[in-house]
User: What shape does this take?
Amino acid sequence: MGKTKLIIAEINTWVWINDLEKKHGKTLNLGNIPAQEWNQLAEMGFNAVWLMGIWKRSPSGKKISEENVDLYEEYSRSLPDWSPDDLTGSPYCVQDYVVEPRFGGFPGLKKARKALKERGIQLILDFVPNHVAIDHAWLTKNSNFFVHGDEVDLIRAPREFFQTADAIVAKGRDPFFPPWQDVAQLNAFSKEYRDAASDVLRMIGGICDGVRCDMAMLMLSRVFSYTWQSRAGIPANNEFWDDVITSARATYPDMLFIAEVYWGLEWDLMQTGFDYCYDKRLYDRVIHENAETIRQHIKSEFGYQSRLLRFLENHDENRVSEILPGDRLRAASVLTSTLPGALLIYEGQWEGRKRRNHVLLGRRQSETPDLDLCQFYQKLIRFASTICHEGPWYLCPVATWPDNKTGEDIIAYGWEIGKKKYLVAINYSNHFSQGRIKLPWENLIELKFDLHDLFTDEVFGKDGKDIISEGLFVNLPPWGYHMFFTEV
Assistant: This one.
């Protein structure tokens, strides 16, 4: 039957615990989360939880976020009544790879992992390879881990470099944006840093099932050389990720690696050992484009697609309920949930939250859950959890007529899992669309069978001879969809 589809709930740990304390009227940490909260995640159909931002945050980073008046407008959009007490510091400004005391430290995390494991849920944590907080101990003990500058750099670009006790160090950056002011840039070509990163990953591998690696493409040799030029030194013989993933898996062979990646570098990172890579291209096409560009994207070879992580939200993106109207939101959700590959859903997405909570804030606005949307997501995630991760999977052609080309806006694909066959058809447009879906299951041609719609519970009797030879006729309303299955 193959592997189960990986379905991840991303949880902003600080915000989530803050909300649960209000809900339950008591102080909480990861060690005493009420069982019903873990149960809810299991009942939704998740088989992995990413506890985002559990590592100890930097006091220096928090101070910088408090003093950065340029961010005050963003804080206010997220939380109109915010105060400095709500600023927690960035979860990606890591002072030390120990569990934030607010969350109960390592003992609290151990209990949370046990609770998840009892429910068949894997635990995923963060690893931030590109940078650490400007007050991390490595800056005083291991300055050779970092990209360095000189006195001229410090004078010329004081927002790009800073002085430590014995070195001038670059601030962490993405090459297309100004440097982050609260972090120091690690050197991907430093063997000493690679060894230290491997030690960190082995430590993490002992307390969870996998890691989501922040901005993973920044550590690719060609990207790092482009960003830092001669300051990075001579590139290593191996890619950073080849070395550290191999090292971690020597101790934890089944450790899961997920890459946050952009710029079309997904395949490059897969080649270094990552199990899954963000599918930002699909996100952009679903939010901003149309059925044809989506269809072109999902024509990729199945082995590649099955290693993509599909999403409509994460802590960096706006809430999808805010940017897509109701019917389109559901069509987009059906699409991203039922394609090959893994699925990431951000906590609150299934409740229809519209207000993005800024990553530097530990509190969020109260919003009333959309109960209909909750039920939709519960049914959708449960269905997605039944899909075999290994296929076979088919992208189905949709026939149209000379005087009716609306079927070009229908995206259709099918799975075959043992005797069960699944068909998903989505009208990704704002008008009615008709077409005939060419099904791949020739063995049905001599059979009569029922198609069950998983959302409406309707049953349609079909004659295999008709639909295999002519195609399955569908007439879908704007943003409408079918999720059929049959067992023959």
The radius of gyration is 24 Å.
